[in-house]
Structures are given as structure tokens and as C-alpha cells.
Amino acid sequence: MRAWVQLVFAIGVEIAGTSLLKLSAGFSHPFIGMAGMLLYGLAIFSFSRALSRIPLSVGYAVWAGVGTAVTGLIGILLFGEIMTAIKAVGFSAIIVGVILLNAPVKAPTNEATVRQSRWRTRVNR
Description:
- This protein has 125 residues and is mainly α.
- It has one domain.
- The protein has helices spanning 2-23, 30-50, 56-78, 85-102, 111-123.
- The chain starts with a helix and ends with a helix.
């Protein structure tokens, strides 16, 4: 549960950092830009902590998908970007992709999977 909280925090901080970078107007406002960069660093740190307990494929899908979708909505709501049918389809595809990557699946039990499981056990010790 803690890892998911860290992931949500990382996503929120990244979204805030991205918004500040937009507000910095190409670093015309350097302090706003530096604040955005600082938030990016905090986001990466929190994301790395979350990945210690969340599978990489799932963690990155959620990170990138939710971050992209929310940032896109912020662009539309706060920065006057236009919502088009193509953007709506894109947002829908992102959401569906994140859901599908989080869907439980029965893991195959072939030799490669067994070797990978043993390797993960050694690495996580």
C-alpha cells in the first residue's frame, strides 16, 4: 500500500513540476523553472521508491499513463488547449492501457519463468 501512495505522490509532484515548467515560459521566469525541476527530482525519487515494491511494467504504465492524461487535462482546463476527438481517443487509449496492464493474469509456468523468479528472489534479498 505504501508503494502505491509513493507512486501517487510521484505522479502528483511530476504533474505540478510539468505545470511549473509551462508557467516558466521557456525559463523566462527562472525561479519558476527551477521549482519545476526540483519537483521533477522529487518525483523521480518517489517513483524509484515505489518501484521497490511495484512491478516495473505496472509502475511505469501508471506513472506515464496517469501523468500524461492528467497533464493533458490540465493543458485543456488551465492553458486553453483544445480538446479534439483525436485527443479524447488518445486519453481513452491511455486509460484502457493502464487498466489492462494492471489486470491480473495467470503467470506461465515454463522454465524461463522459473529462472526469472529465482533471479528476482536473489536480487530482492
